[in-house]
Amino acid sequence: MSGRGRGRGGDVYRNKYGKGRGRGRGEKSRRRGMPRGLGSGYTSGGDTGIRSAAMRRGNETELRQLLQRIDGAGYPAYKDMIGTWVFSSFSLIIDHVQSDPFAPPSRARVRVDTQEAGFPKALHANKIRTVALCDRITREFWRNAHGRLDEQAGCGGGSGGWGSSKGGNINIEQPGQHVLERTSCVFSDGCWELRFTVALPAQGRSIEGLRALARLCDELPPVVRQSAFYDRFDIKELEEYILSVEDQEHLRNVSLKQGNLVAFIRNGAILPRLSGANDGPMNPLDAIPFTSPSHMEKQFRLPSGRLVAGMGIEPGVTLIVGGGFHGKSTVLQALEVGVYNHIPGDGREFVVTDPTGVKIRSEDGRNVQNVNISPFINNLPFNHNTSKFSTSDASGSTSQAANIMEAIEMECKLMLMDEDVCATNFMIRDQRMQSLVRKEKEPITPLIARIRTLYERVGVSTILVIGGAGDYFDVADRVVMMDSYRISDVTAEAMQIARTLPSTLGEVSEVDNSVFDALLSRYVDPRSISSLRSGGKGKVVAKTRHSVEFGEVELDLSCVEQIVDKSQARAIGDSIVFLADMLLHDMPVHKAIQRLEGEFDKDGLDILSPLGPQGIYARPRRFEISAALNRLRGAKFMFKQ
Fold this sequence. Notes:
Blueprint: H1 11-17, H2 25-31, H3 38-41, E1 56-59, H4 60-69, E2 83-86, E3 91-96, E4 106-113, H5 114-117, H6 127-146, E5 165-166, E6 170-171, E7 178-179, E8 185-188, E9 191-198, E10 202-203, E11 206-207, H7 209-228, H8 235-258, E12 263-266, E13 273-275, E14 278-281, E15 297-301, E16 307-313, E17 317-322, H9 328-336, E18 341-342, E19 351-353, E20 357-360, E21 368-371, E22 389-391, H10 396-409, E23 414-418, H11 424-427, H12 431-436, H13 451-456, E24 461-465, E25 478-483, E26 486-489, H14 491-500, E27 522-524, H15 526-534, E28 540-544, E29 547-550, E30 553-556, H16 566-583, H17 589-603, H18 622-631, E31 637-639
């Protein structure tokens, strides 16, 4: 990654996109203590940083001497550590020192020269291999560092009484089952860089310099050596790890298109998880491996030479049917996260979904701002305009309609739905209800009447789990059934039933060639976002992977189910800030988010950080960034001709 535009307030981005209106990114960043012009001066590969003028440079011996000297001193003396310390095989960079033992931990980096680390160039010859190798290095660092935590340490703050010994943790972001592009480990300027936190130890407010020395000079070097040096890895296992991730990426982005598919599930995949609280695979002895119906089976040769076979799902409308508790939702949940790569052994490796696949559901109470839901909902009481629909308390049907239209705005080409979390009246209305509530009195045009138009006119396929509405047989291209966790193709049987027992619905209409035409682009007033951020002391904090504190507003992402990591939520929150400061001025929402993705591709996620390099981000997709922006209460959306 280049140093271009690092950090908020970067001159490069201000020159490229303009300073914007109102309080710009530069002003806001400087108000938060960031030096003027950091963006043009900071490079992730150098020894500069937030306090570049004050940073010092020394060696391991000098760091040891410093920590011995400040032992017992007041906590602010730790700030003398800010700088670069050269060890025998790596450099330790202290970017930020916490203000006291109870504050968030200090930020540090380790940089290892690529020749010293010894990883063959073939293991990071392209972006996806680099992402995979960085992911694996991060996991090894976490595993080794986690085993060296002080039992008395808190998470950057103390435990026990005021005068007790506290701190000492060395921590890095812990990855889950998914392999994501992260900032915890990056390859930059010929070096591998690991970013982590250190809770600098103290007793009361007095520095425990000898404990800090033990952590940083005695215990950290073995962690680095075990995590960031090629000769410490199982070579064959590491190569298989990287090739597996690369093969999954190729299967999703290349093979699906070549095979005219929107999804693929590998034979032998273990789809069930250990529990709702544990995303690891169920014990293979307790799970039933996936097996494709024979005539739906597809085979692909992947870059490593690996041959994978499994069930291919073609574009169109696919129904997953079956009795309760037979595995329908388990299949769909695997497809939902099929937009990500998985670690070997997860069970869902080579379960891949079109990268634009979006989970659609109802979401009672969500905020909706100026969304055109008229293809589904019209003629609301009091002449409420559904072509520019807004509400702070959406119903199940209006929220699901908005979710679909927002996904289409971001160029989604595959919708994933489970009837269990959909609004019933949005999905279908039976004959009796149509007889009682006449069409002219019902504002909702259900999905069953639009699902063919979505595919044939807009190019949006649907995979739908359904167990209680056989009328969908009339609009389906294929029907598969789960029976005791085994899948079979029952399309012919379903179509025969549809012919024998014709639907009584009058709402299964022919394709409407105009209903999705002339959808206008939406814009956001960036000042509305800046105003929201100014509340709560300007903080944007991911509390969980589904909750972001945005100023004084709580951004609820609990129904955005394809966010899989808290680090993604952090990136989403700061992406909204970046968009408001740099990209949303006179640019439609979808174009601005696509431009942001391009900046990620060129310069990485560091462009989001107000404080220089931090290992706290994992890359989100544009769909989840858009979903968060659309749910931000107080953000003002508008249409422009």
